[in-house]
Amino acid sequence: MDADNILRLADAAGIETYYWDNHGNRHDASHETIRSLLAAFGIAAATDAEIWASLTTFWRAPWMQLLSPVLALREGEPVAIPLRAWEEDSQRIIQWHLVLEDGTRRTGACRLGDLAHDDIAYFDNRRIFQHRLPLEPLPCGYHIFRVEGEEAATSLIVAPHHCFMPEGLTRAWGLMIQLYALKSQSDWGIGDFSALQGLIEVVAHAGGAAIGLNPLHALFLNLPENASPYSPCSRLFRNPLYLDVTAIPDFAECPEAEALAASAEFRRVLESAHDDAFVAYRAVASLKLPVLELLYTQFRAKHLAANTGRGVAFRSFVAEKGHELEDFATFEALSEHYGAVDWSGWAPQHQDAKSDAVAAFRNTRADRIGFYQYLQWCCDEQFAAAAGRAKARGMAVGLYNDLAVSVDASSADYWMDRRQFAGGARVGAPPDPFNEKGQEWGLVPLNPMRLRETGYAYYRELLAANMRHAGALRIDHVMGLTRLYLIPNGAKPTEGAYVRFPLDDLIAVATLESQRNQCLIIGEDLGTVPAGLREKLAAANILSSRVLYFERGQGGYKPPTDYPQLAAVSVSTHDLATLSGFWQGEDLNAKASLGLFKDPNEETAARAARALDKRQLLQALATENLLPAGLAPADAGDLAWSAELTAAVHAYLSRSPSTLMMAQLDDLVGQTHQANLPGSITEYPNWRRRLVRALEDLGADPAFRAALAGIAAERA
Fold first, then answer.
1. Residues 313 and 225 in one domain
2. DSSP output for 336-394
3. Average pLDDT rounded to a whole number, residues 230-244
């Protein structure tokens, strides 16, 4: 194997051939890893001949095309379209036309030899020039540039310099909540969009600006126990289990649904699910889906058949969402047909979303596909209603969604457009202090080659779908905009490599969608952050994520004044211990009981570090004169956690100059166990634990209201 050429090919494809770990050790990607990742991207590299041919293609292919597939520009920048042609074609007259996003057309003609050129390449003893065609400035948007006689076109993305930021937003605050965990008196065993409206009232009344949510992505309805919101079936659509079934207008018009919901057996299952300390996803699905089917039958008969206002609204939604919704609903119907969510196990003719067999299936199952479209419409209506309530109550940000890194390898999104994904790879993380074995997350990554070829069309749709009705979007693992750790499918997490993504172009698309949707962006930049990334995100007005546990200075926690202004700060996250759990070492106990420490020495070191963390936390509070009277840092070892200490920590973080300060509802109600324990799958009740207190109790609790008032006072 030609070692030099495979490394050159890896670099050309964006595969980083080595990385440095947190301990300063260098890790080189094996040739087998490189070949496997190249194959996942559709690049042949099995032999020396294939490697050379692929490398030659990388060198030649861009120069053999008159037009580039995409050009990302910033608003106000000069526009110069690259045109590549052989030297002997310099006399060629080209007729070009530009179609702006609003339909406006601009046309022109030029002789290639009259244009300036800024680059030259040599192939076959001939020269190719890269000419530049200057154009008048373009408005922000997605435009198409074509040349007559050429099949290819250039997608022009003209983006603003900065993401949207609500006017006057400064030192605002809000609550973070796992929506499934939110408990109300009327829920059916899981938090829902109506409970979210109730929480909006509580937070808005206290002066809060935002409510941060876990990803609401569609999961696998036929496998409801697969509950991780970060391993979705689709990032384009939402999870119908969050619907408040009784709030759908069709419920009041459907006697059959009301009768079913009032039946003795239904009430028995409902009460058991409602009172459970964990979300019983299978029971919740068994309650909601049969009633939703009755509602759809009622809706079809009363509204679709008669083309009422609701019928028209549904048809408009379906038309707006187009083939993506139709394909997603078809996936749901096929999953139901096969009784399996992993489409790789379906009949071969149904594994291709674009096949004639899938089209035939769709034609014979129109009503069932309509049902799944109806569920998404209801989700859109109820989420929009919650967002509207937040806006009406004066919340400057309102709801903010969370965008998962990618989708499950069995997902609808992957099935719907397999060309967009690198199916032979999985997203993960190399070994680090949190998991010395590394992690493979079961997510199939987007193919960076395909992203550019398609003018980032899928990425644009993805952002728009998740910004819809939202005031902010948190991008999980925002480092994925510049690089992702990818593992060949079936390999160990240690056998992966980092792969580069087109950061500048992806930020350009994000700023454009942010401004269009009036939606600010928060980048989850925790962990190993590549050099220069935070500066680029800040230049685009993308908020950094800063977590108290990780913000350390010389000998202790950073003072609040050291936090950056352009950030969303919080004490913890769903992957970390709650304040109470941190203090009690509940996360360490859980890791020990599940065997997640590699050896006794690692556990001993972790517990010693936690003891120091606790003393330093009390010292930080004391430095800010926030430590409750009678306490001292030396008391940390024997001190029980209290509501007063919770208030003090939040007051400490509230003093930061950061744009947003987000408090976890789990911390404010004294929850001990965290939502998710990284490194575990089924051994720990991840993504299931409900809040210990109901929403109605919280709203009436003077202590809880005082906690919110304390945060609001510090942020004022």
1. yes
2. HHHT-S-GGGS-GGGSSTTSHHHHHHHHHTHHHHHHHHHHHHHHHHHHHHHHHHHHHTT
3. 98
Identify the domain containing residue 88 by its residue range: 76-159
Q: Same structural domain for residues 294 and 330?
A: yes
- 3-state SS class at 671: coil
Q: How far is it between the farthest Cα atoms of the chain?
A: 87
CB atoms within 10 A of CB 132: 17
Measured CA to CA, the distance from residue 407 to residue 343 in angstroms comes to: 14
pLDDT at 152 over 70: yes
Is 667:571 a contact under the CB 8 Å cutoff? yes
pLDDT tens digit sequence for 421-446: 999 999 999 987 667 778 899 999 99
How far apart CA 249 and CA 124 sit, in angstroms, is: 70
pLDDT of 184 higher than 70: yes
Q: How many CB atoms lie within 10 A of CB 356?
A: 9
pLDDT digits (tens, 9 = 90+) for 547-570: 999 999 888 999 999 999 999 999
pTM of the model: 0.95
Which tens digits make up the pLDDT trace of 28-54? 999 999 999 999 999 999 999 999 999
Helix 600-623, helix 643-654: angle, nearest 10: 70
Helix-helix angle 31-40:3-12, to 10 degrees: 40
> Number of structural domains, the chain?
3
Answer yes or no: do 8 and 43 share one domain.
yes
| 314 and 344, same domain (yes or no) | yes
Q: Are residues 335 and 385 in the same domain?
A: yes
Cα–Cα distance for residue pair 254/262, rounded to 1 Å? 13
Question: Identity (one letter) of the amino acid at 42?
Answer: G
